[in-house]
Amino acid sequence: MKDFVDGTAFNAEQGNRARKLFAAVVLAALDDAISDDKKYGNGPEQIARWARSRDGREVLSCAGIDPNERVVSGLMDFVSKGVRTSVALSREESERRNAAAQAEAA
Questions:
Q1: What's the structural domain count of the chain?
Q2: What's the Cα-to-Cα distance from 40 to each of 28, 30, 44, 46, 54, rounded to whole Å?
Q3: Per residue in 29-50, pLDDT tens?
Q4: pTM for the full model?
Q5: Which ranges of 1-106 would DSSP assign to H, the alpha helix?
Q6: Separation CA 72–CA 47 (nearest Å)
Q7: Residue-range definition of the domain harbouring residue 58
Q8: CA 45 to chain centre
Q9: Cα distance from N-terminal residue to C-terminal residue, the chain
Q10: Could you read off the pLDDT of 60-87 as tens digits, one per residue?
Q11: Which superkingdom (predicted)?
Q12: What is the spatial distance between Cα 70 and Cα 60, in angstroms, rounded to a whole number?
């Protein structure tokens, strides 16, 4: 019997990798806007301009994010809080683990 890879599974795997790559670009854009906000005070406007641009909408779509105005305002809120994406993600993961541990202990 020959070993073979199911083509649809392979394509789905590639699609997931591509989405993760574009999500990383979104995170980098957020970090850049946070940096701009600290330097120049215009971070939320910068991320909004990027997210509404053709390239920004394309990147958001490829990351699996619907590039609508609700998303743009969420990105602006995130930037205005000034917390780097790596810190926000690690804190969120830590809180999720703590909640799971507390639920398990109860």
A1: 1
A2: 18, 15, 11, 10, 24
A3: 999 999 999 999 999 999 999 9
A4: 0.79
A5: 7-40, 43-52, 54-62, 69-81, 85-105
A6: 8
A7: 5-103
A8: 18
A9: 50
A10: 999 999 999 999 999 999 999 999 999 8
A11: Bacteria
A12: 13
